[in-house]
Structures are given as structure tokens and as C-alpha cells.
Amino acid sequence: MIELKNIYKSFGSKQVLNGVNLHVVKGESFVILGGSGTGKSVMLKHIIGLLKPDKGRVFIDGRDVTDFTRQEWFKIRRRFGMSFQEAALFDFMNVYENVAFPIRRHTRSTEEEIKKRVGYCLDLVGLSGNEKLMPSELSGGMRRRAGFARSIALNPEVLLFDEPTTGLDPVMTDQIDNVINDLRRGLDVTCVTITHDMISAFDIADRMVMLYEGEIVFTGTTDDILKSRVPIIRSFLKGRICEEKTQ
Amino acid sequence: MNFLDRLGNWVLEVVAQAGDFAILCGTALKAIFKRPFDIRNLFKQLERIGVDSMPVVLITALFTGMVIALQTYSGFKRFQAQSMVGALVGVSLTRELAPVLAGLMVAGRIASSIAAEIGTMRVTEQVDALEVMGVDPVQYLFVPRILSGTIMLPLLVGVADVVGIYGGFFLLVNVFGENPDMYLNKVYQYTNVHDVVSGLVKAAVFGFVIAMVGCFKGLRTEGGAEGVGNATTGSVVMASLLILILDFFLSKLMF
Ligand SMILES: Nc1ncnc2c1ncn2[C@@H]1O[C@H](COP(=O)(O)OP(=O)(O)OP(=O)(O)O)[C@@H](O)[C@H]1O
Ligand SMILES: [Mg+2]
Description:
- The structure holds two protein chains of two kinds.
- Chain A contains nine helices and ten strands.
- Helix content of chain A is about 35%, strand content about 25%.
- Chain A is of the alpha/beta class.
- In chain A, a hairpin with a 2-residue loop joins strand 4 (about 55-60) and strand 5.
- Chain A has a domain at about 1-80 and about 195-245: 3-Layer(aba) Sandwich (Rossmann fold), CATH 3.40.50.
- By secondary structure, chain B is mostly helical.
- Chain B has one domain.
- In chain B, helix 2 packs parallel to helix 5 (about 135-175), helix 3 runs parallel beside helix 7 and helix 7 packs antiparallel against helix 8 (about 225-255).
- Chain B starts with a helix and ends with a helix.
- The relative contact order of chain B is 0.16.
- At the A-B interface, helix 2, strand 6 and helix 3 of A face helix 4 of B.
- The complex binds adenosine-5'-triphosphate (ATP) and magnesium ion.
């Protein structure tokens, strides 16, 4: 479904991705783990063409999309939904309009249908009753949930979530995890989720990868990761990001 | 050597920016004709550009009209030609001063606010969010703004022409006690349609440039709040310079 082959990416002199290989199978829930600043968000942006690799190829459904033009990307992206780490809500629209935005742009739904769909999505993330608020009036966690609601509004086939639960309370985190699981159970949805939260990761993942210093140091199922002897992974499981080796 | 290096880099940077700007202008012009056409957004921008700029443009026009009348009056009076003041005010305002000064004032207001707005959207990933949703930011963000700029500036300048000429009238008639009919007769006699139209054409071009520069600088914003600040000031400088440069070439073209 989604394949990254030997991706290199640097910003100025800073090398961020060092030959990343990744294969997400259709219908699975794929979790990306890794310390802060290791390039997880950068990697996710390569999947959807927001960033272009310095070297390496990106494949979607077996098609090489690396050199796609913007117009070609716009077509492909209709199948994708993405929630951003900082939510990226449009600050000139209220919550309702934010979630309705992709529906308005890409379907010919009536106002009634939109209302139903938006209401449903907001309900899923526990934001009913906040439709009229502007993004600047929301807390960080509320913003993130609104962004999440917006990303699922169009029922996309592929969902990319950048830390959907960071900064949420445990109950809310659990609820979002359940939404992700429900989405996958009901439909044939592929999910790629970045998270720091190991409980979430185990909750939702079919497979996980661990990114460390711009490389994938682990790929496997949830069972595999528990058995893994790689020191970085062990310390990550214990809730510590392995910095010792770099210093 | 160091100085030359820096000069060289600066020139390269300017040339590269000019190239990018030209390409983006082309993309934006093409995007105007793409569907869906966002009427609601267009009206919002029309209102913003028009209403926001109206007071500054009117005050500028009023005082410009008065000051030209004042200066030429004192000069022309020396050879008994004060009846010609109306002609000079009319021609210089409509051809040159109203479009350029209004352009510069609107550049300060609108180019900067567009750059700040789109720059903020850029650094908070809202532009990326648009892209991800398959919505072309050039079409969604640029088109309403550049259309509004191109439509609104000629309107503002049209009003500015009238207000500026009235400013001159007010000064001559009410302050210097000249004959009111004389002034207006000379305005009508010497200001022809071509003068007015060439001024409005300039205004349309300036309006396009102002909105386009704001969008361009906004879209290129990098690096947080500081980047937004740089984009904002940069947009005013770039738009103002472009207005002054284009003004010369347009004047030459429509002489
Ligand atoms: N647009 C950019 N320009 C320059 N550097 C960037 C840019 N985007 C990311 N980086 C750099 O790339 C590195 C990885 O960033 P990234 O956002 O992918 O981290 P992350 O793994 O998502 O971390 P976190 O868990 O904190 O979100 C960082 O060191 C950052 O400084
Ligand atoms: Mg990140």
C-alpha cells in the first residue's frame, strides 16, 4: 500500500532521515515510535508528499509517486486523511466549519448531510457542543481532537495521525484509541499513527516501527517488540528515550 | 572580497526571488479560472481590502489634492496662471498621484496583512493541511485575494481621484477665494478619459501586485513568529518597490 524505499532527507546541514525503509500493508494499523526530534513527522510528511526526499522513492499502491506534480498529488490525497501534530485547524473558521471543510470541498452533500456527518465526527472525539468555538478558544487537547475529527470527516481509506493522543488525559486517549480501532474494524482502513504513548501503541497497533537517529531500528508486531533485545527499544519500553549512546 | 561576495549573494537571491515570483504569478493567474469558484471568500476579501483601505486612501487623496493645489497655486500665481491649477491637479492626480500613493498606502496595509495571515498559516501547518485535503492553496488562498486587489484598487483610486480633486477645489475656493467654476472647468477641460483610464489601469496592476506579493511572501515564510515578522515587512518593501518600478514602465507604455 505505502512504501518508503531508502529515504534520505536533510534540512540544511542537519541529516534527519538516513535511509528509511518502510512498508505499510493495506488494512493494517501501523504505529511509528521514536524519540522526540528523530524525524517521525518528517517521515509521515513524505508519505503524503508534503516533503520530497533528497534520495529514495515513495510508492503508493505500487505507483512511484516521488516525482508527482502537485496536481497529481491533489488527486491521490482525496483518499487520505491526516491529522497534524499541532492540529493545524484553520484559524479563520470555527470548529464546525473546520470539520465541514473537506466535505464541502469534495462532495456535493446537502447542508443537512454535512451537519449530520460533522455532528457524528465531533461526537466521536467528545467535542459535541463546541461547534461554534474558534480554534483560538480551544485548549491544546481540544484542538488536537478537532483536527482528528476533521481528518476522518471524509471517511478516507488511509489515515495518517501525528500524535493524536499526546497531551490528552487517559480517558480521552482511550476514547481516541477506540475510535481508531472502530474505524479500522468497520471499513477497510489503513492507519499510520505516530505516538509516544506505549499504551496507545499496544492498543491500536498491528505492527510498529521504531525510528532512531533517522533509521528504522525495529519493525515487528506488538509481540515482537516485547521480546526485542535491542537496547534502545528496551529503554523506550521502560519509558526512557535512549540518549546515552549519543553522548 | 567579503563585501563583493555578499553583494553577489544578494543579487543572486533577488534574481531567484524574482523568478519564483514570476512563476507563482503565472500559477495564480491560471488558478483564477479553475473550479470551484469561491464566491463567499471573494466577497470577504473584497470587503476586507476595500473597507480596510478606504480611510487611508481617502485621507491621502484629500491631502494630496490640497497640497498640489497649494503648491501650484503659489507658483502659477506669479505669472497670473492660477486658473490653470485645476488642470494640473486633475491631470497629475488621475494619471499619477492617486494610483501610486493609494498603491503605496494599500501596500502598507494589505500586502503586510496578507503576508502575515498566510505566513501564520504556513508556519502553523494550515497550508499543509489544505494541501493534504487536496485543496490547492494557490487557488483557495491566492485567487480571492488577488482578484479583490485587482478589483478594489481601481475603485479606491476612482474615489481618490474625486476626493483629491475636491481637495484642491476646497483649498482654492474656500481658502484662496478663487472662482469655483474656473477650477472645475479646467479640470474637465484638461483631464481626459485617457488620463483617468490609464490611472485606473495602473491601479488594477498595483492591486494585483500588492495581493500577489503578500501571498508570495506569506507562502515562503519559514521559522515561526520571527519568520512571519520578516515576511510581513518584506512584503511591504517588495510591493512598494514593485509599484514604483512598474509605475514608470506603465507610464511609459500608456504615455
Ligand atoms: N521544515 C523544517 N526545516 C528544518 N528542520 C526541520 C523541518 N522539519 C523538521 N526539521 C528537523 O527535523 C528533525 C525531526 O523533526 P520531526 O518533526 O520529524 O521530529 P519528530 O520525530 O516528529 O519529533 P516529535 O516527537 O517531537 O514531534 C528535527 O530536528 C527538526 O529540527
Ligand atoms: Mg512530530
